[in-house]
Amino acid sequence: MQFMLLFSRQGKLRLQKWYVPLSDKERKKISRDLVQTILARKPKMCSFLEWRDLKIVYKRYASLYFCCAVEDQDNELITLEIIHRYVELLDKYFGSVCELDIIFNFEKAYFILDEFLLGGEAQETSKKNVLKAIEQADLLQEVCGLCPR
Amino acid sequence: MPAVSKGDGMRGLAVFISDIRNCKSKEAEIKRINKELANIRSKFKGDKALDGYSKKKYVCKLLFIFLLGHDIDFGHMEAVNLLSSNKYTEKQIGYLFISVLVNSNSDLISLINNAIKNDLSSRNPTFMNLALHCIANVGSREMAEAFAAEVPRILVAGDTMDSVKQSAALCLLRLNRTSPDLVLMGEWTARVVHLLNDQHLGVVTAATSLITTLAQKSPEDFKTSVSLAVARLSRIVSSASTDLQDYTYYFVAAPWLSVKLLRLLQCYPPPEDGAIRGRLTECLETILNKAQEPPKSKKVQHSNAKNAVLFEAISLIIHHDSEPTLLVRACNQLGQFLQHRETNLRYLALESMCTLASSEFSHEAVKTHIETVINALKSERDVSVRQRAVDLLYAMCDRSNAKQIVAEMLSYLETADYSIREEIVLKVAILAEKYAVDYTWYVDTILNLIRFAGDYVSDEVWYRVIQIVINRDEVQGYAAKTVFEALQAPACHENLVKVGGYILGEFGNLIAGDSRSSPLVQFDLLHSKFHLCSVPTRALLLSAYIKFINLFPEVKGTIQEVLRSDSQLRNADVELQQRAVEYLRLSSIASTDILATVLEEMPPFPERESSILAKLKRKKGPGNLHPDLDENRKERSANGGTADHSSTTSNAKVAASPTPSTDLLGLGSTITTQNSAPPASKGTSLLVDVFSENIAAFPVETPVAVGCLPLAPFPSRFVCKNNGVLYENQLLQIGLKSEFRQNLGRMYVFFGNKTSTQSCYGWPFTVPYCAFFLTVSLQLNVHAKPADPTVDGGAQLQQILNIECMSDFVDAPVLNIQFRYGGTLQNVAVKLPITLNKFFQPTEMTSQDFFQRWKQLGAPQQEVQKIFKAKHSMDTEVTKAKIMGFGAALLDGVDPNPSNFVGAGVIHTKTTQVGCLLRLEPNTHAQMYRLTLRTSRDTVSQRLCDLLSEQF
């Protein structure tokens, strides 16, 4: 996966994760173009499209669009389910997640994503294991960093 | 405010975010942000040392501002400070800030790396993970330099926690992508591969991605992963859906891992070990079987996950391209999806079938879905799905369905989305050229392209139609007629004017006989478009006009008048003005001869790769050009060579293909199918002195068998023609000039050594040894006059063959040439175009005589009849020329139906003379011919019918 974007129906970016080195300018341009392209599509259209030399996989959940850019050989359907699993993780963590949760706790959304995907690849696909890691981290709030285990 | 705020909430941050959300305008938002930035700046610069919490809060605010799309130019140092905080949440925010905002800020990198190093050696898995995530997210060169050696050690160490292994594996993957030179697996390779056997499925999932990336780089080192991956896959595929606990996703066992394993296997050819191969085939069959089972859940997640694995399995089957049963099953499965109610599945089925179309095993199976795909093109509501349908039609196109597919694409083009028009135009142009059986169809197709989508027809496309018309003399008359007709439309696209101008300028004479397209009419038509065109087109038209002056002296005055007008001679555009002045002068002072030389018909273009194909390649990656792939595969299998599975997308062309229509794309064929005229423009003097008398002594060697050699057939045009280039490759050109009288013939064969003209070989040489053998059937007596066996580079040698026809025959004599070049012996075998009809003597007769004799030859064995489809345009004049070239007398006014052709002649052999009558009945409506031959000898009727029917 090259990048993942979350944006609202109004086109506001809520989360952006880049797995390839790109300048700020390029990132902004890509996000702008892609958000426009996807918002222009009708609801019943297919979830995949070719965009420049990438494949875009996207799905809308309530007011939020989840959009991933993958490479030519990558599997579109499994990417669609990566999106779904991430939504499930957010949902479980926040308890029926809504856009506001992601706005106000954006850092958590990033932490959960890092536990699930790393370097653009699925790291841990078990929902239990991901949430366990996050909860452990939450418990560690005031623990001294030098203490072993 | 959300109800839930886990971890420790930062009130200040929440308030700030609320404020931003409440801003009514962009200006208000910017004002609020600037206020906050000033506040944070003063806090960071203030005298009072900030506590960890405040620092974390402000860094988090900066991050939020940055993510809103504003620039942040401070705070990096504070974030780095957080990294070494002993409070986890502070450390975590610090890392997040660095991950999102770090930009090779060199003075900070060493500080960051230091903090990461500390966390990596902390032995606290949560801290180690944070550090590894940071490396993976930033992935910079500096980090690779610092940690590329350390991360593999963590990955394979026995006491590393599973979750850390997972992070380490993907961290390494990222470093390998950004700085592959720094990631050296070396001693770790075997242990990394072994992670495929790990008990923890999460570790296997992460490791499989890493191994796939590494295997793509150095497949040899990770070869052992194949058997482990197959074993793992087999266990997953055969497990019950509950076996894998939380790794089962909506009743599908470990879909992510399955897909990754199947991806890994696509780095390799099919396993050589029979047992592993069998096990893999079993897995693939199971996956295909599961697709037919009723779904275990109605949820879309279930079917998506299941089909994700299925599509990846099909990709692997296509990649291996070795199991015909699996390929056909895959194709059938995709065929079902083509009509599925889920748009996503239809899209993917079209996409996947595109690659299946390029396999020789499944190409035919894919073709059976043509109607469904055409229907998709017409009825799909989503442009991206229609785009896939276009791609698939392009991929499945071959000679058998080209006309249908091109017609469908053309009709779609009229309503197609603007975004994909240009690509469709390119594809249609390529297919029309590649599969053109007769070039009239090709010309019609391209003109339709210009008519329907003129704006999207790039220069490459119309250049190409001109190249082809110039190189194929059989289509020139038709092209001239067709563009002339097309130009009569009141509004036509400028590209059509360009093509029309060029073609009429070259070949307008071919239609000038008809009063409806007389020279003046042609000129007036072109000139009526002149003022509506852009400067480059006008310049082209001016050149067409001067060509007209040469072709049609009778319009010289009219054209000079036009050139002389102020709008030309004083045109504001320098190019137009210059052309007008020069052409006017040229036409006034040059003699007819000089004009004819200067304005001679354009020589054939050298055959080369179609510029259209090159353009499509630029537009899309090479992987999408399936027809090419297709050719590659066919060639590979034709050569019987071992398939190299790692390079299936290579577009390199190796073998020459002898069919003229493939050659059109200029993809590596070496056999000339061009005009018979020597290509004077290429600067080679090979056949220029065709009539020179330098015949030298040459001992004729004993004939040898040639059955084992690649035998080049002669182009069929030689049946009706006696002169031309018979054969050409990079080293050698063979030209012919021949004459026949009664049962005797003489053929001059010219061997041209092309080597010294090819300066790329770098050194001058001669062909030191050259021998010619003839294999001749008994019915022909061929005597070769001796010639010098050595042909110097760049020189040519002539050999005379005296031919006597003893009795009627079918097989043409074979000319076998051997010569040494660069130390290796080269063999070339070509059939000489000595055919039975060469011994025809035309006989004139009246209608009465003809039908009397026709009746006399009425015995069933004396008549041979053939009904066949026209391969070329059904042009009366061309047909007449061909019958005369064939050798028979063309009898006018004999057949009561004026559109039929009848001919008569006598075949002379040494032993007998055979009278022949022929009748050709064209049916222009059905584009068919009926050819009837009646002679006194059945073998002659048969042979002449076979030969002549190939000509139309």
From TrEMBL, chain A:
<keyword id="KW-0168">Coated pit</keyword>
<comment type="subunit">
    <text>Adaptor protein complex 1 (AP-1) is a heterotetramer composed of two large adaptins (gamma-type subunit AP1G1 and beta-type subunit AP1B1), a medium adaptin (mu-type subunit AP1M1 or AP1M2) and a small adaptin (sigma-type subunit AP1S1 or AP1S2 or AP1S3). Binds to MUC1.</text>
</comment>
<dbReference type="InterPro" id="IPR022775">
    <property type="entry name" value="AP_mu_sigma_su"/>
</dbReference>
<protein>
    <recommendedName>
        <fullName>AP complex subunit sigma</fullName>
    </recommendedName>
</protein>
<dbReference type="InterPro" id="IPR011012">
    <property type="entry name" value="Longin-like_dom_sf"/>
</dbReference>
<dbReference type="InterPro" id="IPR016635">
    <property type="entry name" value="AP_complex_ssu"/>
</dbReference>
<keyword id="KW-0333">Golgi apparatus</keyword>
<dbReference type="InterPro" id="IPR000804">
    <property type="entry name" value="Clathrin_sm-chain_CS"/>
</dbReference>
<dbReference type="GO" id="GO:0005905">
    <property type="term" value="C:clathrin-coated pit"/>
</dbReference>
<keyword id="KW-0653">Protein transport</keyword>
<comment type="function">
    <text>Subunit of clathrin-associated adaptor protein complex 1 that plays a role in protein sorting in the late-Golgi/trans-Golgi network (TGN) and/or endosomes. The AP complexes mediate both the recruitment of clathrin to membranes and the recognition of sorting signals within the cytosolic tails of transmembrane cargo molecules.</text>
</comment>
<dbReference type="InterPro" id="IPR044733">
    <property type="entry name" value="AP1_sigma"/>
</dbReference>
<dbReference type="GO" id="GO:0030121">
    <property type="term" value="C:AP-1 adaptor complex"/>
</dbReference>
<dbReference type="Pfam" id="PF01217">
    <property type="entry name" value="Clat_adaptor_s"/>
</dbReference>
<dbReference type="GO" id="GO:0035615">
    <property type="term" value="F:clathrin adaptor activity"/>
</dbReference>
<keyword id="KW-0472">Membrane</keyword>
<keyword id="KW-0813">Transport</keyword>
<feature type="domain" description="AP complex mu/sigma subunit">
    <location>
        <begin position="1"/>
        <end position="140"/>
    </location>
</feature>
<dbReference type="GO" id="GO:0006886">
    <property type="term" value="P:intracellular protein transport"/>
</dbReference>
<comment type="similarity">
    <text>Belongs to the adaptor complexes small subunit family.</text>
</comment>
<keyword id="KW-0968">Cytoplasmic vesicle</keyword>
Automatic annotation (TrEMBL), chain B:
<keyword id="KW-0254">Endocytosis</keyword>
<dbReference type="InterPro" id="IPR011989">
    <property type="entry name" value="ARM-like"/>
</dbReference>
<dbReference type="InterPro" id="IPR012295">
    <property type="entry name" value="TBP_dom_sf"/>
</dbReference>
<dbReference type="InterPro" id="IPR016024">
    <property type="entry name" value="ARM-type_fold"/>
</dbReference>
<feature type="binding site">
    <location>
        <position position="53"/>
    </location>
    <ligand>
        <name>a 1,2-diacyl-sn-glycero-3-phospho-(1D-myo-inositol-3,4,5-trisphosphate)</name>
    </ligand>
</feature>
<comment type="similarity">
    <text>Belongs to the adaptor complexes large subunit family.</text>
</comment>
<keyword id="KW-1003">Cell membrane</keyword>
<keyword id="KW-0168">Coated pit</keyword>
<dbReference type="InterPro" id="IPR050840">
    <property type="entry name" value="Adaptor_Complx_Large_Subunit"/>
</dbReference>
<feature type="domain" description="Clathrin adaptor alpha/beta/gamma-adaptin appendage Ig-like subdomain">
    <location>
        <begin position="716"/>
        <end position="833"/>
    </location>
</feature>
<comment type="function">
    <text>Component of the adaptor protein complex 2 (AP-2). Adaptor protein complexes function in protein transport via transport vesicles in different membrane traffic pathways. Adaptor protein complexes are vesicle coat components and appear to be involved in cargo selection and vesicle formation. AP-2 is involved in clathrin-dependent endocytosis in which cargo proteins are incorporated into vesicles surrounded by clathrin (clathrin-coated vesicles, CCVs) which are destined for fusion with the early endosome.</text>
</comment>
<dbReference type="Pfam" id="PF02883">
    <property type="entry name" value="Alpha_adaptinC2"/>
</dbReference>
<dbReference type="GO" id="GO:0006886">
    <property type="term" value="P:intracellular protein transport"/>
</dbReference>
<dbReference type="Pfam" id="PF01602">
    <property type="entry name" value="Adaptin_N"/>
</dbReference>
<feature type="binding site">
    <location>
        <position position="43"/>
    </location>
    <ligand>
        <name>a 1,2-diacyl-sn-glycero-3-phospho-(1D-myo-inositol-3,4,5-trisphosphate)</name>
    </ligand>
</feature>
<dbReference type="GO" id="GO:0035615">
    <property type="term" value="F:clathrin adaptor activity"/>
</dbReference>
<dbReference type="InterPro" id="IPR013041">
    <property type="entry name" value="Clathrin_app_Ig-like_sf"/>
</dbReference>
<keyword id="KW-0813">Transport</keyword>
<keyword id="KW-0472">Membrane</keyword>
<feature type="compositionally biased region" description="Polar residues">
    <location>
        <begin position="644"/>
        <end position="660"/>
    </location>
</feature>
<protein>
    <recommendedName>
        <fullName>AP-2 complex subunit alpha</fullName>
    </recommendedName>
</protein>
<dbReference type="InterPro" id="IPR009028">
    <property type="entry name" value="Coatomer/calthrin_app_sub_C"/>
</dbReference>
